[in-house]
Amino acid sequence: xxxxxxAPYPALRLRRLRQADWIRRLVRETVLTPADLIWSMVVxxxxxxxxxxxMPGVSRLSVKDCARAAVEARRLGIPAIxxxxxxxxxxxxxxxxxxxxxxxxxxxxxxxxxxAAPEVGIMCDVALDPFTTHGHDGLIRSGRIANDATxxxxxxxxxxxxxxxxxxxAPSDMMDGRIGALRGALxxxxxxxxMIMSYAAKxxxxxxxxxxxxxxxxxxxxxxxxxxADKKTYQMDPANTEExxxxxxxxxxxxxxxxxVKPGLPYLDIVRRVVEAYRVPTFAFQVSGEYxxxxxxxxNGWLDEDRAILESLSAFKRAGAAGVITxxxxxxxxMLGA
Length: 338
Ligand code: PBG
Hints:
The chain contains eleven helices and twelve strands. It is α/β, with parallel strands linked by helices. It has a single domain, classed as Aldolase class I (TIM Barrel, Alpha-Beta Barrel). It is globular, with a radius of gyration of 21 Å. The relative contact order is 0.14.
């Protein structure tokens, strides 16, 4: 049904509904709450906190500190935490062998967080890049990313994470067919309740720069073989929209419970189209580069950091996102008065 025609000015003065805070609050169309946030967090193998230079306010946390942060998330009303590992470079290899290690820092952090705050959902990235010397999300065979060989490793990694108590598995690798393989494996291994949030439309973006610093990612284009210098053969071309809808459709068909668009703000049009096309819970990842930009401009006094954070997070809600994965989660939740 189309709305009735607008009355002409002066009968219609749109500013009437903006004249005071109470009426602005009353007619507000979308509301941001701590329940919209997934806290993006980095865990490392050592003790204490290690600040990430390119992400002021973000530190790599020890397993113990992750458990404390989970308690803090619960207090702040943040429903879930997405956990990413920093692995010592000397322990990586070309095959990402440690990715499925049940004694690794991710399963230890998951257990510690679930013990400390079982009410907080824990989401794990399924991808090999924190564990590979070359920094790619996939295995390399003859200088190319090998899709199907990678899937086998991802399934092993995902099952290990589920075993450790992860509530949501979030494959961020962009291999074809990994959602179906993972869903099937979870069902057969007795983990029917473990959820999958697929990084369905993940773009080959410049905005991941600080993250690769945060997790100490291997340098692309380096390593024992002739390794690709970028991720463009598996992550999407930033120019494409129709392809994003195909990616999302495929992942839903294969068993994804929720989907994600990544990066965030530069891709709000994709969020909107995915929500309209599929009506499944759709999340956006406000990535490390987006975080760094707001922090840098805020530190220089070029913009009001707190307002920019809340405005950017609200924009995701307005676009139709069910929630946002963000490094700002605790800061934003505090501002939202939790
Ligand atoms: C890789 C992965 C990346 C991020 C999450 N998982 C980086 C990449 O694809 O190179 C980026 C997160 C961020 O920038 O905050 N599996």
